[in-house]
Amino acid sequence: MATTRRNFLKSTAGLVGGAATAISALPAACVYAAGDDVLKVGLVGCGGRGTGAASQALRADPHVRLTAMADAFSDHLESSLVELKKETDLLDKIDVPPERRFVGFEAYADLLKSGVDVVLLATPPHFRPQHLAAAIAAGKHVFAEKPVAVDAPGVRSVLATCERARQQNLSVVSGLCLRYSHGFRESVARVHTGDIGEVRWLAANDYRGPVWTKKRLPDWSDMEWQMRNWYYYTWLSGDFNVEQHVHFLDVCTWLMGNEYPVHCVGTGGRQARTGSEFGHIYDHFSVVYEYASGTRLASQCRQIPGCSNNLSVQAIGTKGVADLSEKRFEIRGEKPWVRPGKDNNFYQTEHDELFASIRQGTPINNGDYMARSTLLAIMGRMAAYTGRKITWEMALNSKEDLSPPHYDWMPLPEPAVAIPGITPFA
To answer: pLDDT over 90 for what percent of the chain?
Structure first.
C-alpha cells in the first residue's frame, strides 16, 4: 500500500519537532556563500506555476542548474520541460536527463535523493506539508508555493517543519509573492509608521472570472480525474478562497503586523459553477473576521463570469485610507501619497532573494506567516462550509484531515458539496 499522508505526518511529527538532527551538521546556506558553485535545483510539480517558478529560479543566479523534475503525471513533466527549453537563454541551465525525471506519488522522494540543493514545491497544495517536511529533513533549501496546506493538521506540520528549517539554517521562501512586491512593501511600511492612524477596518477583495477546467477522459480513474482537475476539490486545493484569495488575506495579516483574528463568521456557495467539471467547491465566499482590538476584516471573493472584477485590499484607519492593488498604491487622508511608476516583477524577486540568501549564508524563513495566513483562509472556509462562528483556536486545533485513504489510482468518491448548518465542524 502506498504511504498515506496521515501516516507520513504522524511518523515525521517527532522528527520535525525535534531540535536535534543528524542532517546537515554544517549549515547548508554556508556551503555556497562563495558564489561560484552550481546550485542544483529540483522542481516538484510541473504545471504552469511550477514551470514559471523554475524559469524564475534559473534567472535568479548565474550559477544555477535545473537537474531534476518530479510530477504525478509524465505528460505534465515532459510538457514543462518542453516549455522551459523554449526559453533559449536558459538552455545551458537545464540538465534533466530521463533518469532524473521522476513520475508518480513518490516522485518527490526520488528527486530529493538525486543530489539537488534547492527544491521548488509547486504541486496542488494538499501535498505541500508532506513534501516540505521531506525536503527539510533532506537538508534542502525550499521555495514553497502558496497555500501551504488545505487543513489544520497540514498547517501544524508546516509550522513544525519551518521551525526545524530555522534550526538547520535552511531557507524557506513562500509563494505569497505580494510580500516581495516593492509597492506593497512601501505601502505596508507607511501604514505601520502611522500614515493612516490605527487600522480599524480591512477589506480583502478578490472578484474575478472563471479559471481553467479539465475535461474527463474515459480511461481516467476517479483519482486521476480529481488530481488532474485538482482546483475543484477541497482536499487538493483547499477551495478557491484558500488557493487564490490567500494572497490578499496575507496582505491584511501583514498590515495588521502579523496579528490574527480571534473569530470569524461567513457564508458562501455554488450559484454559477454547478457542473460536474467543477467538483464540489464554492464559487463565492463572504467572511468577516474580528480581531481582539475590534478591528474587522471583510473578506469577499468570487469566481463567476460576466461580473465586475476587483482584486485589492483596502485599509481604513483613524487618519486615512490605504488602497492597495497590483496596479495602484495610494493613501488618502492626512498624509496623502501615490506610489509612482511600475511595480517590480515580484515573482522574480522572491527567487532573487531566495538564491541571494543561500549564497550569503543568511537564510530566509517565511514559515510562520505562510502557514498562519493559510490557516486564516482555511478558517474562513470552515465558517462558510459549516455556518458556525469559528475561533482561531478551533481552526488551529481542528482534527479535520482531508487526505484520501491512500494514494494510488483507485476509485475515489466525489466529495459532497458543503451545506451550511448541516456540514459539521471537525
So the answer is: 91
